[in-house]
Amino acid sequence: MTARMAKTQPVISSRVIKDSLKSVSTMTIRRHLCEANLLARSPHKVPLLKKRHVLKRLQFAREHMDWPKEKWRNILWTDEMCPMHGNKNYYKDSELYSCF
């Protein structure tokens, strides 16, 4: 169960998994994740958006205001998926530790 949670939600922490299970320790969670080859890693750091990035994003949004919601669901802004600063997250060895 712990490995499944970490695979479906790569940004979940062992503490959050522990809180959802209640009766196990954080170390037990980490041990199970390690056995499933899901090791704690810090996510790749990305720079903050610069003013020109914000303006370009706004320009893109204005140019595509008429798009239906289905098309907007395919747009992923790079700052939307970054985990909270300072958390360790669980990834497979083959995954890139990044937010994009």
TrEMBL record:
Gene3D superfamilies: Ribonuclease H-like superfamily/Ribonuclease H. Residues 4-66 form the Transposase Tc1-like domain. One of its GO terms (molecular function) is DNA binding. Pfam families: HTH_Tnp_Tc3_2. InterPro entries: RNaseH_sf, Transposase_Tc1-like. GO terms for biological process: DNA integration; DNA transposition. This is Transposase Tc1-like domain-containing protein. The lineage of its organism: Eukaryota, Metazoa, Chordata, Craniata, Vertebrata.
